[in-house]
Amino acid sequence: MRTPMVAGNWKMNTTLAEATALAEELRAALSPVKGVGLLVCPPFVSLATVSGALAGSGIAVGAQNMHPEAKGAFTGEVSGPMLTGLATHVILGHSERRHLLGEDDSLIATKVRSALGLGLTPVLCVGETLVQRESGKAEAVVAGQLAAGLAGLDAGAIGRVVVAYEPVWAIGTGRAATPVIAQAMMGAVRYELTRLSHVDTAQSMPLLYGGSVNPANAAELAAQEDIDGALVGGASLVAAQFAAIATAFAARAAR
Ligand code: PEP
């Protein structure tokens, strides 16, 4: 039985004061939610404060990105060693970094290896664009992103990665993938993970769906075989909404 997981990506939202207030609201709203791994990923500058506000709550804190090098002349960047002690997870390969900031698969793979080497859990995001979907390439694109992002890792290391399937056309659009499409894609993700590692590894890995998840669609997504959790953007900024989504996935733990 895989433990469900619900993660919030706050993106470039919240001032320090707002992040602190949101962490405190989440702490209260999520306290009744049991059996779900909970993660929030605030902006870098709020990591220390949010970690403090959530200490002892069972809610993990992650970063939204990291540089693959440990240190050096990379103005404005944040390295993995800088995150240790502040974050347990790091989102890598988010579509906004792939498509708006030009990150490619080989850079993302370097980051994944670097994060694992530091004991940080990568949340590796993969997903196709609308053009790729409409031209029948969705599964091939996602399989390629997985193979590239996990290149050079053995089954044990792959098993320490959390994979999030996030179709680009569903992120921030209010147009979530239907449960049927999401399940089909995430079944294909698990198949690819089996091919890249081992059936036991792939079966043990929680897979997250991301793209316009909200309290109204979470239960139907959570009912799908291969959707173990969610990576939530917009709705993670409202404590009651994030808690409702987490509760929907808690039902999965109970079944
Ligand atoms: C995301 O940022 O990863 C995301 C899925 O955003 P949203 O939930 O707003 O679509």
Report on this model:
The protein has helices spanning 16-30, 47-54, 80-83, 95-99, 105-117, 130-134, 138-149, 155-158, 179-196, 199-204, 218-222, 239-254; strands spanning 5-9, 37-41, 59-63, 89-92, 121-126, 162-165, 207-210, 229-232. It is of the alpha/beta class. α1 packs parallel to α2 (47-54), α1 runs parallel beside α12 (239-254) and α7 runs parallel beside α9 (179-196). The protein is 44% helix and 15% strand. The mean pLDDT is 97. It is globular and about 45 Å long. Bound molecules: phosphoenolpyruvate. Phosphoenolpyruvate binds at residues 9, 11, 166, 171-172, 210-213, 231-235.
Instruction: Please state the structural category.
Output: alpha/beta
Q: What is the radius of gyration?
A: 17 Å
Shape summary: globular
User: Percent of residues in beta strands?
Assistant: 5-15%
Number of DSSP helical runs: 12
Largest sheet: 8 strands, parallel, barrel
- Give every kind of bound small molecule, once each: phosphoenolpyruvate
Could you tell me how far the N terminus lies from the C terminus, measured between alpha carbons in angstroms? 10 Å
Helix % is: 40-55%
Average pLDDT rating: 97
Strand order of the largest sheet: 1-2-3-4-5-6-7-8
Q: Would you identify the regions where 5 or more consecutive residues have pLDDT less than 50?
A: none
